[in-house]
Design a protein that fits this description.
The protein has 1 helix and 4 strands. The model has no long low-confidence stretch (mean pLDDT 91).
């Protein structure tokens, strides 16, 4: 297996203007639809915490309560 796909939801975005960054907290999706329940079979729990610089495109990507796919691929 070379890749695993999980679905996470953005639970929290905290702005840190004095440091020109934001913190983003994501948790594994486990309910809400049949698709989400299927993801929960493979990733029943999980947390991802990111710190993102404000001056990057990534700073605007995450939206609170939005679900996103996370793909894990082996680094070679």
């Amino acid at each position: 297996m070379s890749q695993v796909r999980a679905k996470f939801i953005c639970n929290l975005i905290e702005e840190s203007p004095s440091f020109y960054q934001k913190s983003v907290q994501l948790t594994a999706v486990t309910s809400g639809s049949d698709e989400n329940k299927s993801f929960a079979k493979y990733t029943p729990a999980g947390n991802i915490n990111l710190t993102i610089s404000d001056d990057t495109q990534a700073a605007e990507f995450f939206v609170k309560d939005q679900e996103d796919f996370i793909d894990f691929t082996k680094a070679e």
